[in-house]
Design goal:
Elements (H helix, E strand, L loop, with lengths): L7 E8 L5 H17 L3 E4 L6 H10 L1 E4 L12 E4 L7 H8 L3 E4 L3 H15 L3 E5 L5 H7 L7 E4 L2 H6 L8 E5 L5 H14 L13 H13 L5 E5 L5 H12 L4 E5 L7 H4 L4 E6 L5 H14 L1 E8 L15 H4 L1
Parallel strand pairs: 1-11, 1-12, 2-3, 2-4, 4-5, 6-7, 6-8, 9-10, 9-11
Helix pairs in contact: 4-5, 8-9
């Protein structure tokens, strides 16, 4: 008796998706440090927000810590700061303890740090649009003295924000926010404070922008959307929200194929798939394979941008520095 034919499933694959240049640089930094110096290599916070990536680096000899006090005193092993950036107090503590520190902060996050410092030096009150508790926000706020930065998370907070000097303000943003949510908050602030100084160039990074635009294109065409990514990944959560906002009735964040809820995805005819900036392509392929076991799949890639951004490794890890 022949098996019942598998139902058809059209998969629209968002492009760009997955790793951005800052994530590639950060992961490469850990792997290169392991190659040059051997294990262990200490990494403060998850180098990027993806369990698969972190576990893979642990297997090669990386040791992940949340704070520097967890790093043994007197170690000569490299201590790497994650892609999300850190407060100024962290490299200061590393220097005091004579650690061999390597900063893998994404250059686009570093740009935001520098903007905040420049505004502060010019006497402006700094508004940071972002999510409380996210490592990037902690790092950006930690560039300046306590109280120098006001965090605004929502449109409501933008409406109620009461600056010390309404004529002397500047704003920056977390790099991984929703474009639409941020635009609303910025519009409210600029309407209230017309002289507020904006970033020279959009703080929300190219990768966040491109991945959200691809989801906007695909989400209205499919019954369901999978965002491959981690629950603590800001840019991945924003992709899920964008898909919902664009009318996709089922948009879920999935870390691995084993996490797929087949009650939700088992009887669809069209599916969109994207991946957050810290999710490797192997996980996308794993999820497509899981659907191919249950469906006759036809995969189409929907391109909305071409990315060729590259960031060189931190100086200490470049080939000429290691000779």
């Amino acid at each position: 008796m022949s098996a019942a034919p598998k139902p058809d499933l059209r998969i629209l694959l968002c492009a760009p998706r997955g790793f951005c240049a800052g994530v590639v640089r950060a992961i490469d930094a850990v792997e290169r440090a392991l190659q040059i110096y051997g294990p262990p290599v200490y990494v403060r916070h998850e180098i990027v927000h993806n369990k698969y990536v972190v576990e893979g680096l642990k297997a090669k000899g990386a040791i992940f810590v949340e704070e520097l006090h967890e790093v043994p005193a007197g170690t000569s092993a490299p201590v790497i700061f994650s892609a999300h950036g850190v407060a100024r107090s962290v490299p200061e503590e590393a220097a005091q303890r004579n650690f061999f520190a390597i900063d893998a902060t994404c250059p686009l996050v570093t740009k935001v740090h520098r903007e905040a410092v420049v505004h502060f030096k010019r006497g402006r009150e700094v508004v940071l649009i972002g999510h409380a508790g996210h490592p990037e926000v902690i790092g950006t706020m930690g560039q300046l003295p306590a109280g120098a930065v006001t965090l605004v998370e929502t449109a409501e907070q933008a409406r109620s924000f009461a600056p010390r000097d309404p004529g002397n303000l500047a704003f920056t943003t977390q790099t991984t926010l929703s474009l639409d949510d941020t635009a609303e908050i910025v519009a409210i602030l600029r309407a209230r404070f017309p002289s507020m100084v904006a970033p020279h160039k959009e703080d929300i990074c190219y990768a966040t922008t491109n991945r959200q635009e691809a989801v906007k294109r695909v989400a209205p065409q499919v019954e369901a959307m999978i965002v491959v990514g981690a629950p603590n990944s800001s840019n991945s959560q924003r992709l899920r929200e964008v898909a919902e906002r664009e009318g996709c009735r089922a948009a879920l964040l999935v870390q691995r194929a084993g996490d797929i809820d087949w009650d939700v995805f088992g009887s669809i005819a069209s599916l969109g798939i994207t991946a957050g900036a810290s999710a490797p392509e192997v996980l996308v392929e794993e999820i497509i394979d899981a659907f191919a076991e249950r469906f006759t799949v036809r995969v189409e890639t929907v391109y909305t941008a071409h990315e060729d951004v590259f960031f060189p490794l931190p100086r200490q890890l470049r080939p000429d520095a290691a000779e």
